[in-house]
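hey m, so remember when u said the tokens were messed up on ur end? i reran from scratch. heres the input so u can diff it against urs
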Amino acid sequence: MNVIGSRPDGWWRDREAAMASLVERLERWSATTDDEVVVVFERSPRPPIHSTEIEVAHAPRLEADAADHEIVRRLADPSAAQGATVVTSDRELADRARAAGASVEPAARFRARIEGR
């Protein structure tokens, strides 16, 4: 939700549509890169969002910072963290991602990049 919330464009009125829109943008962007793209949501989107281009994941249980915990869990494998970039504007998640060996890109900068701005 860091990327979605990086611009006050009314996303909070329809979170499901905002999540689907982000996945669509990520699919288009992923076609321009060889990078593996994974988006991790706090909860499973309703209806579920499927993609053949990127991995759409969600935290296994609802709790505070659930997606952050799932991202850090995925980075626990050193081979997963090496070369990974976590997109977030959350300082605590950024610190945890760097400690695991990943790099960090601010959400607003990444959103501008995937939107071609």
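this time it looks ok to me. The chain has one domain: 4-114. if urs says something different then somethings off w ur setup not the seq
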